[in-house]
Design brief:
This protein is α+β, with helices and mostly antiparallel strands. The protein has one domain. The chain has two helices and seven strands, in the order H-E-E-E-H-E-E-E-E. Strands 1, 2, 3, 4, 5, 6 and 7 form a seven-stranded mixed beta sheet that branches.
């Protein structure tokens, strides 16, 4: 199951099972918290926090979107806004999927703080949306 789940359509149970049993340290804490989306007219129409891993300062999120294509930059920017308002962790493992598409995106999003343009302001900078982002899922991998 977990050995081939990256070559399958996204399934939350398989993904969380892989994270907890094979990928993340033992302090990974599962959850299923629905996250409020401030701009419901965007591409992302549902967000769920699937858990966190304190030792890695990592949160795990699932973002369901309504695009038939893979607009990774748009999805990343929308997820940055959601994360900025809902999660202080500097690292996020994110899944972006559309139920009608067999392919899904797995991304590592990192952030850091820097001084803003206004004196005394701190802003959160997120990683480049094109880095650490992988398109996986059914028909993405060919086996011979």
């Amino acid at each position: 199951m977990s050995e081939i789940f990256l070559a399958s359509k996204y399934n939350r149970n398989d993904f969380v099972s892989f994270l907890s049993q094979k990928f993340l340290p033992t302090d990974f804490e599962q959850s299923q918290s629905k996250v409020f989306i401030e701009k419901p007219d965007g591409k992302i129409n549902n967000a769920v926090k699937l858990g966190s891993c304190p030792s890695l300062e990592l949160s795990v999120y699932e973002f369901k979107h309504n695009s038939n294509h893979d607009p990774k930059v748009t999805l990343s920017r929308e997820s940055f806004n959601i994360l900025e308002k809902n999660d202080p962790e500097p690292n996020t493992l994110a899944v972006f999927f559309n139920e009608e598409n067999a392919q899904w995106r797995l991304s590592l999003i990192t952030s850091d703080f820097s001084l803003g343009k206004k004196k005394g302001r701190v802003k959160r900078d997120f990683s480049n949306p094109r880095r650490f982002s992988y398109l996986v899922g059914a028909s993405r991998f060919a086996y011979s």
